Amino acid sequence: MNFVTPEIAWAPLTPILIVLGAAAAGVLVESFIKTPATRRVVQLWLSGAALLAALVAVVVQWGGLEGAAGTVVMSGKITVDLQSLAWQLMLLIFAVLSVLLFASKTSDNEESFTALGSVAPGSVEEKLARRAGLQVTEVFPLALFAVGGMMLFTCVTDLIFLFVALELFSLPLYILVALARRRRLLSQEAALKYFLLGAFSSAIFLFGAALVYGATTQIDVAFIGIAIEIVDGRDGMLLLGAVMVIVGLMFKIGAAPFHSWVPDVYQGAPTPVTAFMGAATKAAATAALIRVMYLAFYPLEWELSWMFWAVAILSMALGTVLALVQTDIKRMLAYSAVAHAGFILVAFAGLEAEALAALPFYLLTYGLATIGAFAIITQVRERAEDGGVGAEAVRLGQWAGLGKRSPLLAGAMALFLLSFAGIPLTAGFIGKFEVFSAAVAGGAWILVLIAVIASAVAAFFYVRLIVLMFFTDVPEGAEDSIAVGNEPLSRVVIYLTAIAILVLGILPSGVLELFQESAVFLVIGG
Amino acid sequence: MNYVILAAILFSIGSAAVLLRRNAIVAFMGVELMLNAANLALVAFSRMFGELDGQIMAFFVMVVAAAEVVVGLAIIIALFRARQTISLDEPAELKG
């Protein structure tokens, strides 16, 4: 047998290689630098530099692609086109902001992550580890691996490599979720639930991919589309496989009825991790769902549209209604994330070309607001009995009168909440408008009507929190119970995201044009 | 084709284990069974079509599944140390 060495065009993969290479280097840093404090600084600079370098590499490639649609790498396993570059750019921006949050420390010099992940919560060993000043600095390489996996996820055009990339970004996230410094039992429980349900869904995805392979003899998404169209393999096995693949991706987006992990994980995970995965996982999964739907399963549009309709409506209804009754702010934002998953799926109605520009913009606005909102949650903390800074104040009641304690933070939070609700002059409005127009262009005006009603109802619980922050007095005797942090890194993130939300809300045209430019796929053979 | 049917049966058993059993390890074994069912299906199809693609994919899946075991067991052990139980009904602090 003759083996031919495959030709690999490495250049288009530069951003991903930089990120994954830095992650591997970060693992080495873990074993060679003994002092936790030094290690932390090195890891922070390493990951920051790698992400910025990757950002530059993406921009350079974008410029280099002028006129051309993109590059096919490894005979069609990976396709780097403008669409995937747009998503990579977005993921890198989210990652830079999240790494800043990861590194943020409270005024008591306490970070968001546990001293030693392997010791039991509340045990003597944990106290010893804390006293010794141990730190889990592995979070930085883990985050880099996750980012690299997500970037790969946006440009892979082969169902099995899609599975590999899915696991590459999911596995580090499972670990990150388990590493909270406070409320560790909650955090570990969230990690177990996330892991079991995540592994379950990726197994469903994989079996679906195997069935699609069986029905079409192809695993390349573009060839699957052609095979379905020409060979007319619309049999039960193909449909079942397609549904299972889509279910696996919808699970990562967090759409109902595959949302059961979302509230638990959002609540239990360390807040910086919640911010990161809330923004980035949704974006990466949406990118992959777009590619799979537009390139492979578009001939099945009629057969699959009921599923998108049902899941979108259910997500919007369930997310909105359940968010109304929450008393924990992280949990409330989690159910709002489920509702937003529904809005994302609305854009898939009709598989219109408009959605290719609308969805990246929507995910960008949603991700920035999510990172900003969770960054604020890290700043509002309970006061410990010894006068120090305690755990995050996540009960809604504890946020009463935040506008008087810290007008700036409360103002930024209000801005993010209005953006979630889709009020004009915030980025969220433009995002929702784009997504809904894409759905209307696809003829799904009934779905859009339902989505508009759901956004109106959702505005109620966002506004309720704003009222609580600005128009409710601090409860009697509880004046000293809340400590508002002033961590420089978190503040930077909050201000940057707030400015971005305002700018994207008032002057969106530049970014919109950018995404419209990127609304093309490079399809081989098609 | 018989192998594909066997794979489907294994997949169903695995998913039933994940959904019904309350022991974290057993549920986890169910996930592994599902992944291996997918492997079996891939190899069976590959044999049916007389090409190598499916078998190569099965190798990738095996590696990923091994990595998943590492992470999963680590999380389960950390949870066991904290609670002395791995029942999925026991940890119920996250509700609502």
- Percent of residues of chain B in helical segments? over 70%
What is the β-strand count of chain B? 0
- Beta-strand percentage of chain B? under 5%
| Helix/strand order of chain B, N-terminal first | HHH
Could you tell me the mean pLDDT of chain B? 88
Share of helix of chain A, binned: 55-70%
Unreliable parts of chain B: none
Q: Please report the two chains with the greatest interface, counting residues with C-beta closer than 8 angstroms to the partner's C-beta.
A: A-B, 46 and 44 residues
Summed up, what is this model?
The complex is a heterodimer of chains A (526) and B (96). With 526 residues, chain A is mainly alpha-helical. Helix content of chain A is 70%, strand content 4%.
Could you please describe the fold and organization of this structure?
The complex is a heterodimer of chains A (526) and B (96). Chain A has 526 residues and is mainly alpha-helical. Chain A has one domain (11-517). In chain A, 70% of the residues lie in helices and 4% in strands. In chain A, the strands form two sheets. Chain A has a three-stranded antiparallel β-sheet with strand order 4-3-5. In chain A, strands 1-2 form a two-stranded antiparallel ribbon. In chain A, β3 (380-383) and β4 (389-392) form a beta hairpin. The radius of gyration of chain A is 23 Å and the shape is globular. Chain B has helices at residues 2-20, 24-49, 53-83. Chain B contains three helices and no strands. In chain B, α1 packs antiparallel against α2 and α2 (24-49) runs antiparallel to α3. Chain A binds chain B through residues 117-121, 160-161, 163-164, 167, 171, 174-175, 178, 184-186, 188-193, 195-196, 199-200, 203-204, 206-207, 209-211, 213-214, 217, 219, 263-264, 267-268, 325-326, 328, 331, and chain B through 4, 7, 11, 14-15, 18, 24, 27-28, 31, 34-35, 37-38, 41-42, 44-45, 48-49, 51, 53-54, 57, 60-61, 64, 67-68, 71-72, 74-76, 78-79, 81-83, 88, 91, 93-94, 96.
